[in-house]
Amino acid sequence: MALHRLSFRLRQMILQERHVRTLRTSGCVQQQEAVAESEPEPFSVFRTQESDPACHSEKHVGQFYTVPPAHVRIVFPYGLPRRYIEQVKTFNEACLMVRQPALEVISYLKKTDFSKPALRYVFYGVRGSGKSLSLCHTVHFCYTQGWLVLHIPDALRWVKDCTELLPSSYNTSRFDQPLQAVEWLRNFRTTNEQFLSKIKIKQRYVWTKREFTEEGSLLGELVDQGISRVKSSSDVVGALMKELRLQSGQPESNFRLAVAVNSVNALWGKSNIMKEDRSAVDPEELTLIHNLRKLMNNDWTGGAIITTVSQTGSVLIPKSAYLPQELLGKKGFDTMDPFVPVSVPNYSEKEFESCYLYYMDRHWLQHPQSLTEDGKKELIFLSNRNPTMLERICSSL
Amino acid sequence: MAASCVRTVGSFLGKCGNSCSSINSVTSQLSRQVLRRQICVSSALHRKNQSNRTPPKFTAEFIEQQVEEFNIGKRHLANMMGEDPENFTQEDIDRSIAYLFPSGLFEKRALPVMKHPDEIFPKQKAVQWGEDGRPFHFLFYTGKQSYYSVMHELYNKIQNLEKYQDRLRAKGLFSQDVKQISLGSSRWLTKEEVEGVLVETITDHNYNRLIQLMERLLSMPYCALEEEFVMRYRQQLETQSRKQTVPPLQRDERGVAFSTAEGRRKTSNSTVVLRDCGSGKVSINGQESIRYFPVLQDREQLMFPLQFMDMLGRFDLECTVSGGGRSSQAGSLRLAISRALLSFLSEGEMENMRQVTVFRSVAAGLEGCSKLYAAVIGRFSVSQLMVLSAWRSCRWLTGQLFRPLALLKKLHLDKSFHIV
């Protein structure tokens, strides 16, 4: 694309001619109008001004939209992939690309029938193709629509490298993970602030001899209980999930539940954690996983379950596996079946173009060779249009 | 020097006796000195003095005797191997020796060898003077008779050529565009090589004067008459692309052109099918390039031949590779891609690529520079290339093996490369 070499005003003119949707004036005065009114907001091929995911459509495929900074703090306290967080910090804005898989799932979500059991969507694809960020896009959509978002950004974190493992107080054969549970509760509280004071719990929970949560108290209290009393936090998480599962879909509840789990294959895979006698812990024996598995069943209504399966970081799974069946294993597949598989491919030509222009716009590509056509061809060859690879090649040393 | 290092099979006993006696004479000299001066001399010093002595002189009779022994030994060897003694060539001798004396050594100079004595014993001057003490050659008393005789001969030729040209001008048949000697594929012999030809030492100044006079001869239009004489002092350069066979361009049933080529590096073998009208897809052993080569460096290796010829998005690559490690597989694929690319290129572009690949093979000979040749893309002049190929025999380079950038600086080539 030679657009970046043209002068600013010329660019406006050409872009105005191309983007019919942005033309609001009559045809004969488009040139002057473009110059006059687009000075404050630079338009570009790779960006869209539409920051509401509900309004994204096929027209916006390949374009970057900016997540409003307020939403970033609330919706994604630690929900974004690590490298993406660094990019957000560097560029001072969180731009997500609108891509076909996420749009597909969003369109399905828009048409959900909330009286039927929750549908399960699974993003799958090769390593680095953009599954986690597609999930984040969908989560942003759910948030803007006012749904209650139960976002587990990385189920693998619950299954690997756990330093503190307590025997569960509720069921002695299981293990608690207090630190992970507390962290997750905190983030849940940040994301769903508004619902905490609206939803009431329907059951009485006894934590210890002296602590209990009465029936009819607010959800917020339950969450605070879990955060303050670290020892029982895993059970609080379980209770929370159970409450939400039972209440969503009921006629008197006024919220929709969106369960978003990244790397859901961790629930049925192997775990890294070892007991004192050096034997491996089955994920089933972890309280958090046990409760999450119950959520994954489609026996509740009034919401949707959106997940991804990924090989990266999963324990003892070959690198070549990327299909849901391979990654979920027999048990997982049987539980998740039926689900809607959504494939996330590498960038198409248009999307690659868009990403390249975005990096150039942010002055991220510093090497003079990278600004030429030849440089772009090199990038295509070296990254094979894989989003992560492209990001790694263009990143700092 | 060569005599003491190499052990020939044919003249085993005779030489052993020779070298032993010479060593003994030296040590006896030293011991006499020790007694006189009463200085304690360690054995290390003994060894040092021995290495400084002049090479042993071989008489003409001795060489003749060696030649006879070699010929007899050759017939014996042929009988041993069950082959025809009359038609036993040097290659057959090498083969038989390698069979009879198998060795796991890598140093070629340490392997047993049986060659004609002329190739083993250093060339020595025959006796220069007769029985009456008068030297044969008229330039004997210059000290460097061969060198000065060559210079005289050369100058004579120049004068003869000028006379010839004058005669032609007088007849009116002089023309500037006569067939010239083609010097493109050869270079002047170095000073050491000239010394070997003349069998005497010459100084740098002498060498420069010789080359100057040669150039003067070559500047004359009718120098082609003396071509044979000039070529005696020039060394042919082996060029890679003459040995490089271009793979044929095939077409499949849809009419799309494709070519196949193989490549090898260390212990990896690879085959590449390059299809035209493609989109830049790369599949290696059925997997994507990202999956098979997670490291960026390996993918860059695949990219270099295509990038050099600006044909990045044009071809589809179907590669199969086996053996070796990650780097060597990438290197063999790179070679295979460049070979397959040859069938899509014109002559001029092939020359361009050849220059880069010649450097690569020269540098690959300096094993430590393997990362350098993997990283360097450059276009540079043929004279620089010739310098590089001449350096192959230099010993100081072995010390430079692991400092590729310093090596480039030394050869004053650091500005001409774009290091990636």
From TrEMBL, chain A:
**Compartment list:** Mitochondrion
GO molecular-function term, one example from the UniProt record: structural constituent of ribosome
Its cellular-component GO annotations read:
mitochondrial small ribosomal subunit
Which terms are listed as keywords in the entry? Mitochondrion, Ribonucleoprotein, Ribosomal protein, Transit peptide
**InterPro entries in the cross-refs:** Ribosomal_mS29, Ribosomal_mS29_met
- Whether ATP-binding counts among this entry's keywords is no
Query: Which Gene Ontology BP terms does the record give?
Result: apoptotic process
The entry assigns this protein to a family as follows:
Belongs to the mitochondrion-specific ribosomal protein mS29 family.
Q: Which PANTHER family match?
A: MITOCHONDRIAL 28S RIBOSOMAL PROTEIN S29, SMALL RIBOSOMAL SUBUNIT PROTEIN MS29
**Protein's UniProt name:** Small ribosomal subunit protein mS29
Origin species, per record, is Lates calcarifer
Lineage, highest ranks first: Eukaryota, Metazoa, Chordata, Craniata, Vertebrata
TrEMBL record, chain B:
One MF term in the entry's GO annotations: structural constituent of ribosome
SUPFAM superfamilies, per this entry? Ribosomal protein S5 domain 2-like
Its domain of life reads Eukaryota
Does the keyword Ribonucleoprotein belong to this entry? yes
An example GO biological process term is:
translation
State the similarity comment: Belongs to the universal ribosomal protein uS9 family.
**Encoding gene, per UniProt annotation:** mrps9
Indicate what this protein is called per its UniProt record: 28S ribosomal protein S9, mitochondrial isoform X1
The root-end lineage is:
Eukaryota, Metazoa, Chordata, Craniata, Vertebrata
Indicate whether DNA damage appears among the record's keywords.
Answer: no
The record's listing under Gene3D superfamilies reads: 3.30.230.10
Which InterPro entries does this chain map to? Answer: Ribosomal_Su5_D2-typ_SF (IPR020568), Ribosomal_uS9 (IPR000754), Ribosomal_uS9_CS (IPR020574), Ribsml_uS5_D2-typ_fold_subgr (IPR014721)
